[in-house]
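lol ok so funny story. i was supposed to be doing the assay writeup but got distracted and ended up predicting the structure for this chain instead. priorities right. anyway since i did it might as well share w the group, maybe its usefull for someone
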Amino acid sequence: MKQASINIIYLQEVHSTNSYAKKLLSGERPTEGTVIVADHQTSGKGQDGNSWESEAGKNILMTLILYPSFIEISSQFRISMAVALGIIGFLKEILPDQQVLIKWPNDIYVGKGKIGGILINNEIMGDHFEHVIAGIGLNVNQLAFSSDIPNPVSLKTISGQEYSLKDMTLRLCDCVMERYEQLKQESFSRIETDYLKCLLGLNEWREYIYQGKTITARITGVNEFGRLILETDGAVIECDMKEIVYLF
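and the output, tada:
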């Protein structure tokens, strides 16, 4: 998708870009690929209601509106895969020498540092998607973070450079929509293959906390419903969100 065809709504401040998109969709049907971008969110959210910290005017805070009627509801995690891969591709353009990974289910890492996250909300009507809103938070120019955040990084903390948020946002939109179009037009196999290549911990024996206990396991994949598949000593575990904690 070319930059000129992306409809971007710029906001100085908003409760959250996802909540703004929900309100917008309640009254109209914006063009697919419409993006809501904010300088500041007063109540930005991550997965499961976690807060998303972002200094005003320093980072990319955006929500993308999609109508993925071509995807079965049971396969909705494919949308998350495509969005994550778009972000990964964008970051690899800027940080070609860095290891950029997806920490299942919705975090984006550079090395051992969290640089971004995804929050996807679906509206289902009968047996199809009415719409999907994909929220993306990406740390760009922020240098200082709250002390209770264990491992945040930004593009600036990694490279030392200051970036144009407008230029970065436009290119990020392009990268995400390119992956979405790929999901729409091609078989899912390439998306899945590329996603697994970027999955943090794939085929590596690591320690995790599962159901309150520390276990040693390795990630072997993600099933069709988006559950993380772990192999332990003689057993296979399929995890939903919040069932597993990574130990670094």
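The two ends are 37 Å apart (CA to CA). The chain has two domains: 3-197, 205-246.
back to the writeup now i swear
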